[in-house]
Amino acid sequence: MKSHNAPESDDSIKKFEENPYNPEKVKPEDIVRLFMANNVPLIPVISNRGVLLGVLSKGDVISEMSDIERVKDQKIDHFIKSLMKKMTFDDLLPVVAEVREFVTVNLFGEAQGSWTRADLLSASERGYGKQTSEEIEKQQEEQILEWMIYLILEHIPRALYAINDKGKTIFYNSYFEELFEENMGREMDIAFVEASLNDSERNEILYRAEGEAYFLNTDMRFYYERIPFRNNDQIVGYLIYCDRALNESPDCTVPGIDRTGMSLQQILNFVERSVIVESIKKEGRDLGKVARSLKISKKSLEKKIEKYTIDVAEK
């Protein structure tokens, strides 16, 4: 799966085909192959945060590779660091004139997506970043952790899809891909999934008899649980978990009420009142906090309290 890794970007889709941390995976000759396959004179070397660290020149790499004995036992990060250089905007301008797009690599020689020539020129103008040995070690640890997480998630026999707090895809497994293709009758479409999951009108909230909340995506026709990812008490994303039993037999109801003879609006009113009452109890009857937790204004909350005759002082 291809991702465009523009400078300073944190959005990327994770789908590994093999262990991303393998010191023997990339060798100096693989860098030569990248130059040849992409027909570029330069390859930008970037950090895991998308910061420009240096530039590899095709001529320098080929010249270094001519001494096989010297490079055959070199670790790839040492090879790259010894050859990458900092080229100014003026140095780069004539070289990039005939090339629109450049493949980028990290210090381990792994392809990181592509930059346009405008990306490269802009990054050189902002200045080159540095990556200390501690940062490199941390990056290696993160790669190992990502691989372990991927192994766990990919082998859970459930459809999983993860998005960040901006609604952008960070991961999905093969079971979700199969579910999408089966329900939609076409190949996986990430842009469509993101738009669909982030549109409240296309995701109905439902409840089971046990009082647990689930969602129904009306586009892709599956039920799912939305599990938040938290970091320091902040929600940084969500895992869309498609439970097999739920999708085979959803049995979704509104808990605590008999829906017989009730209109849809009556059911919605009941649920809205229940949510407000529970929020008031949780926030200690501080209406400002309640309004913020429900993401509505305090004035709107007060109107709903009056509408549903909720006694805020009630214990």
SSE map:
Layout: H1 28-38, E1 42-46, E2 52-57, H2 58-65, H3 68-71, H4 76-83, H5 89-96, E3 101-105, E4 111-116, H6 117-126, H7 133-154, E5 159-164, E6 169-172, H8 174-184, H9 190-197, E7 203-207, E8 213-217, E9 222-231, E10 234-242, H10 244-248, H11 264-282, H12 287-294, H13 298-307
Antiparallel strand pairs: 1-2, 3-4, 5-6, 5-10, 7-8, 8-9, 9-10
Description:
With 315 residues, the protein is of the alpha+beta class. The chain folds into three domains: 112 residues, CBS-domain; 93 residues, 2-Layer Sandwich (Beta-Lactamase), CATH 3.30.450; 44 residues, Orthogonal Bundle (Arc Repressor Mutant, subunit A), CATH 1.10.10. It is built from 13 helices and ten strands. The strands form three sheets. A six-stranded antiparallel sheet has the order 6-5-10-9-8-7. The protein has a two-stranded antiparallel sheet with strand order 1-2. The longest helix has 22 residues. It starts with 27 loop residues before the first helix and ends in an 8-residue tail after the last helix. The N terminus is likely disordered.
Keywords:
single chain; alpha+beta; CBS-domain; Beta-Lactamase; Arc Repressor Mutant, subunit A; 3 domains; six-stranded antiparallel beta sheet; two-stranded antiparallel sheet; 42% helix
